[in-house]
Specification:
With about 160 residues, the chain is an alpha/beta fold. The protein folds into two domains: about 10-60, 2,3-Dihydroxybiphenyl 1,2-Dioxygenase, domain 1, CATH 3.10.180; about 60-150, 2,3-Dihydroxybiphenyl 1,2-Dioxygenase, domain 1 (Roll), CATH 3.10.180.10. Helix content is about 35%, strand content about 25%. The protein has helices at about 20-30, 75-85, 110-115, 120-130, 140-150, 150-155, and strands spanning about 10-15, 35, 40-45, 50-55, 65-70, 90, 95-100, 105-110. The strands form two sheets. A four-stranded mixed beta sheet has the order 1-4-3-2, covered by helices on one side. Strands 5-8-7-6 form a four-stranded mixed beta sheet. Helix 4 (about 120-130) runs antiparallel to helix 5 (about 140-150). The radius of gyration is 19 Å and the shape is elongated. The chain starts with 10 loop residues before the first strand and ends with a helix. The mean pLDDT is about 95.
Length: about 160
C-alpha cells in the first residue's frame, strides 16, 4: 500500500470572470502568484494558499456558507483589506463583506480574537457586543468597549 500525500485546495466556481477575479485577488494579497490561467481553469496562490478555479457558468453562486478569513495585524491592515476586497462588492456585518464576484470574506483584526477570549467575562461580552454592531471592525472601538466593561482589567 502506497501512502499518498493529500493536499486540500479551495476550488472557486465563477460564471465567466475567472481571469478578472484571479488578477483582482493576486493584486491585493502579498506573496501571490498566478500558476496557470486558461479561459476555463486556473490555479493561483494568495499569500501562500493555493486555489483552483473554473469558469463553470451561471448555475452555481457563492454564499456566506463558505468564506475566507483574513486575520490582520492591526487597523491599517484591516482598512487595506476591507477597502480592497469590498471595492465593487458590498459590506455585511461583523467584519464580513462580499466582493464584486460574490465571494464572502471576513476581515478580522487579531486583536478581536484576544478580546473575545479574554479571561474577564465582562470584557469578552462587551467586545462581542461591539463587534456585532459593526460592519468594518475597528480595533480602538472594540478595545474601548472591553475597557469600559471592566476598567480594572485594562490597567
Amino acid at each position: 500500500m502506497s501512502i499518498v500525500s493529500t493536499r486540500i485546495q479551495p476550488c472557486l466556481w465563477f460564471d465567466d470572470q475567472l481571469e478578472e477575479a484571479v488578477r483582482f485577488y493576486t493584486s491585493i494579497f502579498p506573496s501571490s502568484s498566478i500558476g496557470h490561467l486558461t479561459p476555463l481553469v486556473g490555479e493561483f496562490t494568495l499569500d501562500g494558499l493555493t486555489f483552483r478555479a473554473i469558469n463553470g457558468g451561471p448555475d452555481l453562486r457563492f454564499s456566506e456558507a463558505v468564506s475566507f478569513a483574513v486575520t490582520c495585524a492591526d487597523q491599517t491592515e484591516v482598512d487595506y483589506y476591507w477597502d480592497s476586497l469590498v471595492d465593487g462588492g458590498e459590506e455585511s456585518a461583523c467584519g464580513w463583506l462580499r466582493d464584486r464576484y460574490g465571494l464572502s470574506w471576513q476581515v478580522v483584526p487579531a486583536r478581536l480574537y484576544e478580546l473575545v477570549t479574554d479571561p474577564d467575562r465582562a470584557r469578552r461580552e462587551a467586545a462581542t457586543r461591539a463587534m456585532l454592531g459593526m460592519r468594518r471592525l475597528v480595533v480602538r472601538d472594540l478595545e474601548a468597549a472591553a475597557d469600559a466593561a471592566s476598567p480594572a482589567a485594562s490597567s
